[in-house]
Amino acid sequence: MADEERPRRDRPDQALPEHVLTEDLYQFERLLTPEEAEILLRVREFLRKDIAPNANAWWGRAAFPHEMIPRYAALDIAGLPYEECHPGGVSSLLTGFIALEMARVDPSMATFYGVHAGLAMGSVARCGSAEQRRRWLPAMGRMEQIGAFALTEPQGGSDVALGLHTTARRDGDHWIINGEKRWIGNATFADLIVVWARSEEDDAVLGFVVKKDNPGFKATRIENKMALRTVENADIVFTDCRVPEADRLQEAHGFRDTADVLRHTRSGVAWEAVGVMLAAYRIALDYTLERQQFGGPVARFQLIQDMLVRMLGDATSCLGMVVRLAQLEDAGIYHDHHSALAKAYCTTRMRETVGWGRELLAGNGILLDYSIGRFVADAEALYSYEGTREINTLIVGRAATGIGAFV
C-alpha cells in the first residue's frame, strides 16, 4: 500500500488532552472553566461506562432503564442551573455541553434528562413562587422526584397556543382539570407532571403541578415508536382531576410564560442535535478507517473523505452556533428568535449528517449493532419536537422582517 493510502494515526485529535472531546475540531470545550470541565468529564465517564454499552439493547427492546435513575442522581447535575439546588448556578455553556454529551451517546436518555431537568424543573423555576421552588426543586435536583411536562395535545401541536383544549375550573381551594395530552415523556413514571391548561373563567393559560397519584389522572404508554424508543412517552387523560390551588404555578399567567420555558429548552434540543451529529461522524469515521475494500480502508477514497468532511463541517458550524447561543443566554440578551434559529438550523443539518453517516456504512448502516441506525431514527424525533422547523422558521422570519406570517 502506498504511503498516501495508509490511514494516518497522527490525526490532530490524538494530541488533545484526555478531557477534550476529539470530535470538537475547533475545541469549543476549552471555553469551559476547569471546574465545569471536571463536571463534564464526570458525565462523560458515566455515559461511556454505564449508558453506551446498553443503549442499543434498551432501544431495541423499547425498555426504559429505571435502575439508571439513581446513577444519574449520583452525578448531581440535574439542579445545576437552579439557585435552590446549586447556589450561584453554572453557565449555560456547561448545561449545553451536558446535553450534547448525553445525545452523543443516547438521544433517548438525553430526552429523559431534558424533560426532567429542563422542561419540568425549568417550569417550576421560571413560573413557580419562591415557596414552590423551595418545595420542589431540591428534591427534583436530587432526582428523588422525577418530572414531566404536559403541553402537547392529541389535536394540538404547532397551534397549541391557540388550540389548547385542556381546561381548568376553579372550585374553592382546588382546580378541576379535564382534557387530554399526548407525547408526554416520562409521564408513565414521573412523580410531578407540569400540566398546562386553559382557565374556564378568563381563558388564560395556567400551569399546574399534578402528582402521579392524583385522582382523575391516567397515563398510558405509547407503543410502536420508531424513534427515541427508550423514552416512555404517554397519552394522558384528565377526568375531573383535582389539583390544590397551592400546586398551581403562581407565576404562570399566560402562554407567554409557557413560551419562556420553551425558549430555554429549545436551545437544549439544538445542543442535542450537535451531539447526534458528532456521534454519527465518529461512527462513520471509525467504520471507514476499518472497512477494507479494494485492498485498503475505504477512508482513503476521495468521495468518502468528502462526505466525512461535510459531516464534520455541519457539526462544527452548529456547535459554534449553540456555543454563541449559550453566551447570549448568560449575557441576558437571549430572545425567542435566537433559540428558534438554532433549533431549526441544527436539527436540519443533523438530519442531513446522520443520513450521510448511514450511507457511509452501506448495508451495515441499517443494523442496530452498528448504532448509526438508532441515531438516524432518533434524529427524526429531535427534528420534530420543541417546535417544527416551519414554526421556528416563522419565529425567526417575524424577527427578521417585523411581519408575523403565522396563520
TrEMBL record:
GO terms for molecular function: acyl-CoA dehydrogenase activity; flavin adenine dinucleotide binding. Keywords: FAD, Flavoprotein, Oxidoreductase. The keyword Flavoprotein applies. GO terms for biological process: fatty acid beta-oxidation. Residues 33-144 form the Acyl-CoA dehydrogenase/oxidase N-terminal domain. Residues 148-241 form the Acyl-CoA oxidase/dehydrogenase middle domain. Residues 253-400 form the Acyl-CoA dehydrogenase/oxidase C-terminal domain. Its cofactor is FAD. Belongs to the acyl-CoA dehydrogenase family. PANTHER family: ACYL-COA DEHYDROGENASE (PTHR43188:SF1), ACYL-COENZYME A OXIDASE (PTHR43188). This is Acyl-CoA dehydrogenase family protein. It comes from Actinospica durhamensis.
